[in-house]
User: Fold this.
Amino acid sequence: MKKPIPALALALTLTPITLLASAENFDTCIDGIGRQAVQAGVDRAVTERVLGQVEYLERVIELDRQQPEFTTPFADYLGRRITDRRIQQGRELLNRHRALLNRVQATTGIPPAYLLAFWGLETNYGSYFGRMSVPSALATLACDPRRGEYFTGELIAALRIVEEGAIPLERMEGSWAGAMGHVQFMPSVFLRHAVDGDGDGRRDLWNSIPDAMMSAGHFLKNLGWDPEYRWGREVLLPPGFDYGLAGRTARQPLHDWRKAGVTDVSGRPVASLDIEAALLLPSGHQGPAFLVYDNFEVIMGWNRSEFYALSVGHLADRIAGAPPLRTPPPADAPRLSRDQVMQLQTTLNALGFESGEADGILGPATRNGIRAYQQAEGLIPDGFPSRTLLARLDIGT
Assistant:
């Protein structure tokens, strides 16, 4: 196998080429990216061949503006991803690929159930990789002002993958955002972390399950996975609990959570250990509570959504034989659009409750702002945008 070229484009200070998200400016943008790719060391013939075939995909821009990760209620998000069928299929694949998965664990430290959880969430165990041309999807996003610099780097990384010979250009298909193969690696992740798991001399995440599983294991290991611990667990909170302790940035040792009366779902106090954990309440105080450990942050290195990371952890537990959540998330939680989240952030900031940039993403800063407002108003400070809170702030749902 040709030795992979280092991901030079990722370290490069890329010049934004983006003009407008329109087909009229697309050719000019692509010409500029081509010059950057050659300057970064990508073979000129490969660059010209690939970029000469890319097309502007309007559908990619539409999908980029409609991402559900940060606005869908947790009950909906979890319910669509953790299904009885997916759990059962994961258990069947655990038995079918046990030797491979055990080999990956021996090499990387990642337990089989987690590998299957990522596989299941990303492509439903390889049943759907996406049908978009990866170069065209990345080219479209690279020539869009919103995140053009990032996707320019990803497009140059995709050129390196073609140059390496990992996949024929005509078969380089994936998601609308350019994620590829069984485990939906972005091109830069492929360059850094994909490995040859079946010994055929190629890194093939489309057609080789051993390559995909071993690559996923290497990625998680390199993100810092600690094989001594799990991702986290569902817990129960005592009456009168101080919900101001919740949030991913409010970590404290397990023995402090134990002192606060936190138990596992069977009612046993959590372990009296010095392991730091954070308390997450994705549906507020009426939904499930989770203590999450360092490996949860590793999962978020794969995808920056807390809902996604909780889904990976819970699906892994279910594949390994755990029961459903003790406290299911309420099904009537409000569904907020990005505009409504931006209105919430703007309103909280104007009232003096710092919620970060009004970007429409309900992240930790916004939850902290909500929590501060709730404390000031005598509400349960769970950081959750309940209907009661939204009504007080005159934000319609």
